[in-house]
Amino acid sequence: MRIVDINKRWMYKGSMSIPPCEKGVVWNVLSTIYPISKEHLRLFKKILSLNKGYDMAKTGNYRLTQKPNSENNVVIFNGPSK
Q1: Sequence-distant contacts of 58-67: CB under 8 A, at least 24 apart
Q2: DSSP letter string, 20-75
Q3: What pLDDT digit, counting tens, does each position of 61-80 carry?
C-alpha cells in the first residue's frame, strides 16, 4: 500500500454497496488507477460471493447505481489545486 498516492483523491459520504448497505461510509476514490493481477481479482470476487444473496458473476454489482442527492452528496478533492 506504500505505492498508493492518498494525497490525490476524491472523498464523499455514502453507504456500503453490499448488504446490509450500512450508511455513514466515507468513500475514497484515488486519482491513479493501480492494476491488480487476475488472481487478486478472482479472490476478491470469491470473497464478495460469500455474502448471502450476492452473485458477482451474475450481476457484477449488488445494487444499481444510486441517483445523486444534491443535499447529501458532497464530493471533496483532496490534493493540490491547479
Answers
A1: 61/17, 62/17, 62/18, 62/19, 63/17, 63/21, 66/14
A2: T--EEEEEEEESS-----HHHHHHHHHHHHTSTT--HHHHSSSSPPPPP-TTT---
A3: 666 666 666 556 677 888 87
CB 61 within 8 A of CB 17: yes
Which cell goes with 80?
A: 493540490
| pLDDT (mean) for 6-32 | 83
Sequence-separated (6 or more) residues with CB below 8 Å from residue 8: 30, 31, 32, 78, 79, 80
Calculate the alpha carbon distances from 61 to 19, 39, 56, 58 in Å: 11, 19, 6, 8
DSSP 17: S
**pTM for the full predicted model:** 0.56
